[in-house]
Every structure is written in C-alpha cells, then in structure tokens.
Amino acid sequence: MNSNSITSPTAQRCYHCDEKIPKGCQFHLEILGESRSLCCAGCEAVAKIIIDNNLTDYYQYRTQSAEKSALVPPNIKALRLYDHQEIQDDFVSDNEQQHKEISLSVDGVSCAACAWLIEKQLKKQTGVITIEVNITTHRALLVWDDERVKLSHLLIIIHQLGYKAAPFEIDVQEQHYQQTMRQYLYKLGVAGIATMQVMMFSVALYFNFFNEQNDNIRDYLRWVSLFIATPVLLYSALPFYRNAWLNIKTLTLGMDVPVSIALLFSYIASLYATMTEQGDVFFESISMFTFFLLLGRFLEMRARRHAATMSANLLKLIPAMATLASGEQIAAKTLKKSDVVTILPGEYFPADGIIIQGSTTINESMLTGESIAVRRTENDTVFAGTINGDGNITVKVTHNRKDALISRIVRLQDHALYSKPKIALVADNVARYFVGAILLIALSTWLYWNVYRPQDALWITVAVLVATCPCALSLATPTAITCSTAMLGRLGLLVRRGHVLETLCKVNHILLDKTGTLTEGNIQLVKTKLFDQYSTSEVLMYAAELERYANHPLAKTFSLYQASTILFDKVNNVIGHGLSGTINQQQWRIGKYGFVTNNLSPVNCPISNKYHDDFSIWLSCNNRIIAAFKIEDPIRKDSRRLINTFKQQGIKVTMLTGDGSVHAQRVAQQLNIDHLQTNMTPVSKLDYLKKMPSTDISLMIGDGVNDAPILAGAHLSIALSSGTDIAKSSADIVLLGDKLFSIIAARKLALRTRHIIYQNLAWALGYNLIILPLAITGLVAPYIAVIGMSASSIIVVSNSLRLLK
C-alpha cells in the first residue's frame, strides 16, 4: 500500500507514526515532495535522518505507519546501539580530561579533502572536543563530551556525509581490507582485459587503415570498442565517481573530481562520435586510464597499509583464548580484573597482571625493543602480548583488555598519527585549492583548443585533468609520519604527542636529570655515619620508615630496613627536599642538609664540612643531626655515548639535579657535561627552563616526581618507563626500555623523516609544475598522463616506506 493511503498531508495525524497531532504542535517536514505534519520533535528528527540518508523509499513503499518503539530504520538503529555503556566498554576510554575517546575505522576516505570535510562537519557539533582523521590508516580519533552529545549522533553525521564509521577493531579492519582489495582486483581485471581488447581495435583506427569503402568496418570497430569500454566506465571506475559525488554534494574539491570529469567527458564525446559517425573516439584512453589509475590505487593501498598496520598489529600479539586457573578456556578479551589465569611456557600473556605463583623469564621485546629475556617472579608485573619463557606461572589480572599497556600504547601512537604537523596542514590546504585551480586551467585549455584545434581539444583537456591530479601531494606527509611513528615504536619509544618528530629536529639544548636517568637508579648505600647515641640499625629503620612515603629511587635503597609496623604519623613529602614525620612528639626529617636542620646556622648544627663532600642524605630529630648516609649510583652504560653524540651535533647539554653533593659533580665530570645545576627543586628546575633564551629549543629527559613540572614545560620531553607515573604522564615520549641511545636514533629518524617529507613535496610539486605546461600545450597523451600521475603517487609512498628500514 502506498504511503499516501495511510494519511493525507492535511489530516491531523502524524505522517510518520500516524498518531494524533496535539494542539499547538507545529512540526513539518518535506517528504516525497510535499510538506508533511508530524506530532513531535522525535518523529521530526527520525524523519529527517531517514531523508538525509536517502531512505525515503521507506515512506513510499511502507505498508503501515511506524510505531513509536520502532521509529528508526535498521541501519540507523544499529548506530544507536553504540550509546549503550556495555558496548562502549569495549571501545571507548576516558582521557586525562575525563572526556570520552574512541578510535574509529572510516571507510571511503581517499584524500585530504575527505578528511577535511569530516573534521569540519564534526567540529561544528556541540560536545565534540577534537576529531582528527588519518587518511593513511583510514582511521579517526574522536574525543567528545558524552553529557552534551551522543556517539550515535556523531556516527550518523559521518554516515550522512557518505562515509561509514565504526569502532576500530583490528580483525574487522583486516576483513574490510581484504574485501576492498578483492573488489579492486575485480575492477582492475575488467579494466585490464578491456584495455587489451580495445587497444587491438584502436591500432587499426590510429593508423587509418580504412578508406572510404571500409567506413562500415571502422564504425563496427567503434561500436565494439564502445561495448567493451562501457563496463569499464560503469563498473571499474565506480570508486572515482563515488568519491567525486561526495565531494560535489558537500561542496568540497577532492582528487577524484577532475578524474571523474575526464572519464565522463571522454566517454560522452566518444559515444556521440560513434553514434553520429563523426569525430574521434577515446575508448582506449578511458580503459587504459581506469586500468592504470586502479593499479596505482591498488599498489598505493598495499604500501599504505604496510605502514599503517605496524602499530595496530601489536594488538594481534594478545592471544584469542586464555586459560583460567580452573582449566576453563575463555576468550581473552572477556578477562576482567581479579581473574586468575595460568600461562604455559611459550605462550603469550593474555592480559596485564601480577604473578601470584611461579617464576619465569619473559620476552618483552615488543614493549622495550630489548631481545634479552628478563627474570620475573612472584609479585612482579607482567604485560599482555609478552611471551612466557620457561616457567609455568599463575597470574592475577589487574587490567581488562581496553586498559592493558599494549592497548594504551596503540592509543597513544594513534594520538601521534592523528595530530598533524604544520607542514601537513599546509600540504592539505595546497592540495585542496590545487584541485580548483586544475579545473579552471582545464576549462581554459578546452576553450582555447576548441577555437584553434577543436579535434584535439577534448584529449588535451583530459590530459590536463589527469596529469595534474594532486594525489602525491596529499600523500607526501601522512605516509612519512605514519612510517616514522611506527619506527619509533620499534626503537622502544612511545610517542604521546603529535609534534614529537617536528620538534626533535629543532632541539638545540638538552636538559637531563641525574638519578635514574644518567645513572641506573640502582642506588646502593655504601656508608652510614652516626652523630648521636642511636645505633646503625635504629637510624636505618627511622630512615626507611620515612622513605616509605616517597616514590624515588633513593627511597628504594632503604626499603630493606623498614619496620614491621608503621612508626610515623603525619608524614609530609616536600618534593625536592626530603620527608618529615612525627613520632612520640619528636619530629624526624630525612633529606638534604638544609631541610633536615630547618636551615639553622652552622653554629647550631656543628657538622664538619668534610662530611658534606661524602654524605648527601641526612637524618635529624628535632633539627639535630642523627646520621648521614653515603650512596653510590652507577652511571648507565650508554650515558657517555649519549652526551658525546649530542655535543658533536652542536647541542648544549645541561644536567639538572637535586643532588648537591660531590657525587653530582663527579658524574658531570665523568660524562663530560659542561653545564651543571645542583640542589635543584622542581620549582627551580622550571624557573631555569623559563629563563633560557627564546632561541633554545629544549628537550628534557627525566624520571622522577620532581621532574614532572619541567617535563610538562619543555618544548619536548622524554620520561623513562622506570620513572614515576606523574613523570610519564607529563612527558611527550616514554622510553620503554633502558637504552638511552634510542633517543639519538629517534632524533636521527626525525631528521630523516623531515628530509623525506621535503623530498616528497618537492617531487609532487615539481612533477605537477613540469607536466602542467606540457599537458596544456598538447605534448602529453592521456595514457601518458595516467601513467605519470599513478607513478607519482607510488613514488611518494615508496619513498616514505624507506623510513621502515
């Protein structure tokens, strides 16, 4: 039954659900060419979604009105399911600002114009914090305020633009990629076979083998060529039309607009020439153009996927199944906190957790880049995706899959990929305006040649449209950034910010913490000096009980001497100075000399200066010195190599340390560090940073709580994975292993990436500037233009892939 039989436009019933329209309601919408009355804002919203998604056939052919419980068509209803918390638990995470964050797989994104369109439309929506689209990975990072806008609403907007978006899943993405590649192969096969067939007929037409008596044969070959070329135009070239239509519908200019215009104009002109038996035909150009363009896209997709999936493939290291302690096997992704699993030798760990029984060696190379297995025993932390070595162990799960370290690494790498450096934004804008310029130049070319040589006007215009398509320009930067970010992961560097590669190239002043950064952080207590009646065991116990409340490598030195019960009340941790606590109305302090003596004069605290040279940690009771501790911390093996390499590159090196002892000066001398700042508090470190010349681009490397302010304030910062959580959350990069020289490798990679981006841009722009005048003057045949344009894109992608070596 036709929809008009359900209700008439003038009836006081809702056109959508057929319920009575309350008095005073003024909801109207044009449906099937007429203004329809609706009963509420909900029906109006759903009807608009149906119209915007080109689903008006629903109204034309429905047999009954919609029920309130089933207002939304199935494909829109599926998107609404993503608003359920149970479903979001698998895909959505909370960022540092407590906003919702999700990685989306976006189908149909082919160029910078597509990414720009999605970003532009979503940024207009209330509640959207950020949206970044990566055309290399075909993924988007969406951050939104769940209280102001629902996820389904944003997904519907993306669908309205003509793209398909869904939460990113590596397995689904793999299936989609394989399906897309099969479709491309089918289209490529049709275009290839057609090209070979049409070219055979075209040879005879090119060399004018037919005289006037053989015109019938010539016309016959043209009709056969038309028959063969039509499937190419209607089937093989569909991806170009689809993208072009999306661009035109949303008033943007993408790369497929000039391509589609060239194909359609060539076909229409050839069809007209065939039917009227006048003029030239371009069926071989249409087939060859489509074949080479598809071939270029096919190879380009394979190369881009190779770069894009390196970080995402980390998720594949998590096994599909896990074995509970009871022996039951379940899906690894369903593991929850406090579940207990067993892992046999050679198996991958299915989740992050703590070993509660057994000991083993673990290969953590996928996290740290270090191939040597590390020993882990009870109460040690293990991570999903690492490989169990030689022990049968039992592990208590501490994080679900979404919050596992390997998942966080992938999310942080995604952040870096989605953040576009300035040079990428410039290239995207140039590519977008360049398409408009191409269309104007092509129109001018056609008008000129149509006056002076009309028989050649069409193919010259086609050559201009095809040869100058800015595919390579749009790919120049994102492919290089994707490859280099993947390589940083191989080096054991977790990138948390998008500006890392750009800033690494500009760094000219390195700031370094000492303890735990240049040194191993494996601090050893080598000497204890007593100044009062307390015994050595007593002062060590008091020191350990105070240091219990600190999270610093120094604190771990005293952990062996902790008492069985907590002694101190109201312990206060003064970052950069020390700790103080109260017991039996006595105030004990541990830390720097000035702190433990409350900055009293030397007369009131008569300690010989010779002790200040050897002892850096002091213990006092009611401002009276009780004991002093001498500590040693071995220098890391590659610290000297790191410093020397930086200095050879002309980079200034400064060590900032809270240590005021001779040990700090000794470390600086051994490492050949010229600039040393001692007794630095977190505030004084940040003040030092602020007072640096504006020409200095700083890189801070640290690991402690006292480094957090300067890590956040520096132009670029690196925290060691062994450092505190606050230091790692403040840094732009986290060094997962303990190889400091990976930082040098990262800088070398950044410089190489910048060089390759410049090469890509130079090639893309240079090629277009050279080919454009040749195409305008008619010196480039259409098939040469196709080959040149496809080769240009492949060269840019292949050049970027060199970063993976």
UniProtKB/TrEMBL annotation:
<keyword id="KW-0479">Metal-binding</keyword>
<dbReference type="InterPro" id="IPR018303">
    <property type="entry name" value="ATPase_P-typ_P_site"/>
</dbReference>
<dbReference type="InterPro" id="IPR036163">
    <property type="entry name" value="HMA_dom_sf"/>
</dbReference>
<keyword id="KW-1003">Cell membrane</keyword>
<keyword id="KW-1133">Transmembrane helix</keyword>
<keyword id="KW-0067">ATP-binding</keyword>
<dbReference type="GO" id="GO:0016887">
    <property type="term" value="F:ATP hydrolysis activity"/>
</dbReference>
<feature type="transmembrane region" description="Helical">
    <location>
        <begin position="184"/>
        <end position="208"/>
    </location>
</feature>
<dbReference type="GO" id="GO:0005507">
    <property type="term" value="F:copper ion binding"/>
</dbReference>
<dbReference type="InterPro" id="IPR059000">
    <property type="entry name" value="ATPase_P-type_domA"/>
</dbReference>
<feature type="transmembrane region" description="Helical">
    <location>
        <begin position="782"/>
        <end position="804"/>
    </location>
</feature>
<feature type="transmembrane region" description="Helical">
    <location>
        <begin position="253"/>
        <end position="275"/>
    </location>
</feature>
<keyword id="KW-0547">Nucleotide-binding</keyword>
<dbReference type="InterPro" id="IPR036412">
    <property type="entry name" value="HAD-like_sf"/>
</dbReference>
<feature type="transmembrane region" description="Helical">
    <location>
        <begin position="756"/>
        <end position="776"/>
    </location>
</feature>
<dbReference type="InterPro" id="IPR001757">
    <property type="entry name" value="P_typ_ATPase"/>
</dbReference>
<feature type="transmembrane region" description="Helical">
    <location>
        <begin position="220"/>
        <end position="241"/>
    </location>
</feature>
<dbReference type="InterPro" id="IPR006121">
    <property type="entry name" value="HMA_dom"/>
</dbReference>
<keyword id="KW-0813">Transport</keyword>
<dbReference type="Pfam" id="PF00122">
    <property type="entry name" value="E1-E2_ATPase"/>
</dbReference>
<feature type="transmembrane region" description="Helical">
    <location>
        <begin position="430"/>
        <end position="451"/>
    </location>
</feature>
<keyword id="KW-0812">Transmembrane</keyword>
<dbReference type="InterPro" id="IPR008250">
    <property type="entry name" value="ATPase_P-typ_transduc_dom_A_sf"/>
</dbReference>
<keyword id="KW-1278">Translocase</keyword>
<dbReference type="InterPro" id="IPR021993">
    <property type="entry name" value="ATPase-cat-bd"/>
</dbReference>
<feature type="domain" description="HMA">
    <location>
        <begin position="100"/>
        <end position="166"/>
    </location>
</feature>
<dbReference type="GO" id="GO:0043682">
    <property type="term" value="F:P-type divalent copper transporter activity"/>
</dbReference>
<dbReference type="Pfam" id="PF00702">
    <property type="entry name" value="Hydrolase"/>
</dbReference>
<keyword id="KW-0406">Ion transport</keyword>
<comment type="similarity">
    <text>Belongs to the cation transport ATPase (P-type) (TC 3.A.3) family. Type IB subfamily.</text>
</comment>
<dbReference type="InterPro" id="IPR023298">
    <property type="entry name" value="ATPase_P-typ_TM_dom_sf"/>
</dbReference>
<dbReference type="GO" id="GO:0005524">
    <property type="term" value="F:ATP binding"/>
</dbReference>
<dbReference type="GO" id="GO:0005886">
    <property type="term" value="C:plasma membrane"/>
</dbReference>
<dbReference type="Pfam" id="PF00403">
    <property type="entry name" value="HMA"/>
</dbReference>
<keyword id="KW-0472">Membrane</keyword>
<feature type="transmembrane region" description="Helical">
    <location>
        <begin position="281"/>
        <end position="299"/>
    </location>
</feature>
<feature type="transmembrane region" description="Helical">
    <location>
        <begin position="457"/>
        <end position="481"/>
    </location>
</feature>
<keyword id="KW-0460">Magnesium</keyword>
<dbReference type="InterPro" id="IPR027256">
    <property type="entry name" value="P-typ_ATPase_IB"/>
</dbReference>
<dbReference type="InterPro" id="IPR023214">
    <property type="entry name" value="HAD_sf"/>
</dbReference>
<dbReference type="InterPro" id="IPR044492">
    <property type="entry name" value="P_typ_ATPase_HD_dom"/>
</dbReference>
<protein>
    <recommendedName>
        <fullName>P-type Cu(2+) transporter</fullName>
        <ecNumber>7.2.2.9</ecNumber>
    </recommendedName>
</protein>
